[in-house]
Amino acid sequence: MDMKPKKGVLLVQLGTPDSIDVKDVKRYLNEFLMDPRVMDIPYLNRFLLIRGIITPRRAPETARVYSTIWDPETGSPLMYYSEEQQRLLQEELGDEYHVELAMRYQNPSIESALKKMEGMWLESIRVIPLFPQYASATSGSVIDKVMEIMRNWQYFPEVSFVSNFHDEPDMIDVFVENAHKHDLSHFDHFLFSYHGLPVRQLGKVDPSGELQCPEFGCDSCQKDSKAHCYLSHCYGTTRLLVEKLGLKEGDYTVCFQSRLGKTPWIQPYTSDVLERLAKEGKKKLLVFSPAFVADCIETIDEIEVEYADEFKAMGGEEVKLVESLNLNPKWIQLLKKLALGK
Fold first, then answer.
1. What percent of the chain clears pLDDT 70, i.e. is strictly above it?
2. Cys staple from 252: which of 6, 52, 179, 190, with CB 3.0 to 4.6 Å?
3. CA distance 3 to 94
């Protein structure tokens, strides 16, 4: 007799276009950028800027980039790794659990995943946004969307959320293990490149609205981990990696990539750091991207192609990427731990 699952786990990634067709890429970008937690400006301004300027300009080039990393059978790398992570976690948890995968933007949608789970009469649902460091634009957006959809449910199981896992030892161990696939002595500098955010979003976590963060973040956030602060989580992850790798001050730099628009984003920008290092005579860089649990367009293309080309044009020689968590067994065990709430 088959056991019916009693507990649910919802894994949520950022998202990916349904195909490399420009129309699908445009649809993905529109949904992503129209999220008020991502582009936190008034609706009309956001609509005109995104629908009228950003998406029409970016969609064709983004589609071209996706075409360079797209697998004809499995689609985008992010989708492939996410589906495999779901499958492996389901195997680990067994029949008592039902594991669903959703994308915050596009498909499979959070709404469709929760619709499946609603009819299972589950005792509990554990939501795991797949972002190690908490930010309102990532984990916060996922949690917001889940609560919005579940608002209309008549029966509520016990629902819990994983806010962040930026300092989990198993995650640190996987990145260190992947780093040692390279000869560390071959590189003359190490970058810890995180996804960027507008500076104003750092201060928005303060309910009083009075917190004003500098463009490089508060000194205290670079030294101490704070539950609400994305920047402090990035530096917290970096400190653990640096300690485990045995790096010294001056061997590495923390930086932030993928900025959009003219407003200040968290600094230093990865592009600016590349320019500085090239001027200092650095030639070979090893780059960690610990904001991502699966290799995707932001790692495979933005770092290994775009930043590598920039650095070489400035006189550098090599930019290598440390593989993400992907399908490492320790990462799957960490997912299991997060799912069980341990």
1. 98
2. 190
3. 10
Domains, the chain, ordered by start: 7-165+329-340 (3.40.50.1400), 182-321 (3.40.50.1400)
Alpha-carbon gap, residue 19 to 41, rounded angstroms: 29
pTM above 0.90, yes or no: yes
Q: CA 72: distance to chain centroid?
A: 24
- Please state the rounded mean pLDDT for residues 54-69: 96
Phi, psi of 11 (to 5 degrees): -90, 130
Residue 182 Cα distances to 192, 266, 275, 292, 327, angstroms: 16, 29, 24, 19, 18
Q: CB neighbours of 45 closer than 8 A, spacing ≥ 6?
A: none
pLDDT at position 2, please?
Answer: 57
The residue with greater pLDDT, 2 or 281, is 281
Rounded-to-integer distance, Cα 55 and Cα 162, Å:
31
**Distance (Å, rounded) from C-alpha 236 to C-alpha 101?**
28
Burial class (CB in 10 A: 0-12, 13-18, 19+), 310: middle
Question: Two tokens at 277?
Answer: 């290092």
Please give the structure tokens belonging to residue 258. Answer: 């993928």
